[in-house]
User: Fold this.
Amino acid sequence: MIKIAIDCRMIGSGGIGSFISELLPYFLAENECLLIGTHEQCSDYVRMPNTEFCFCDVKPFSFRETFFFPPNVLEKIHQYDYYFTPYCNIPGGLNLPTFSVIHDVVFLDVDGMTGFLGRFARKIFYKRAINYSDAIFTVSEFSKERIIHHLKCKKNIEIVYNAAPKYLTEDFPNGKPAKKDQILFVGNIKKHKGLKYLLDAFEAARKSDSSFQSKLVIVGNAENFRTGDEETVSRISRLSASDGFIEFTGKISNERLKYLYAESKLLVQPSLYEGFGMPPLEAMTVGTPVLISDIPVFKEIYGQLPVSFFEAGNAEDLCEKLLAVSKNLPERIDISSLTELYSYKRSAEIIIKTLSGFGNQCEN
Assistant:
């Protein structure tokens, strides 16, 4: 058993929040843990044995977090052996072994994601995380290579793969829903997600094959429109209004997303860049086939699984594969290897082993 102070302040805020939420039960099972966050964020876990709660509502990446982190919270943290944050934000004033996660460096790899100042600020936070961490975790070999490339990181970097969230592995209360003639896209509307190529391919498929009558359902957060691909946003609005074959859902609940994954006959993920890429894994967890771009990280994560690939950024190839796959969908896909390859339990074990190993090095 080790004593870990865990930053829970991003629970409820998208992918990072899901990442730490899924890891927490495994951390708490055999270790003494301090959960740092709000009552709402930590309420599901504070009643577990060997668990202590410390209220903190300081925003991650804020000026206050970096320079004026609350002394009472720091005092509580320093009663533990290690500090773990699920992202690259590290409070000022820490004086204990610290471990952080850099999920990807998309803002450094993809032009146009942000302006010069935004890119510069993110690079500072990445570098700060490396400088103040005793080891770094990331979610793929691809991201590890890009972290080393951009940040010249010489610290130990451990791979802790994502896995399917628990809610997707639970049975449907009224039985699994029937399939509909719909294709699903899940993600934001930024250019590196490749949605433009899916729209091109979808329109071309409808024009070239009259039997292709599938609906395209796009799941994403409308707030991302502010920093998204404005041309694609306008196009989605126009197509949604004109023919009814495209639906944009906006932000939806996990329960609704689970049903969309299960109801759709195919998920298409046309990304040009990802650090891991969760939607294909989530879709396969509920038995839905996937068609994905052949970017390096998808080859790494999904190369051993029953998926179909198309050439990234090639709408013509995507159209051909979309028509071919749609006409030859398997009745079921074998996902037995999913949990063998990707498990939050295994990722938590890697993190605990890394922390414990660092403690043993210090003792020696």
The chain has a mean pLDDT of 92. Residues 190 and 313 are 14 Å apart (CA to CA). The two ends are 18 Å apart (CA to CA).
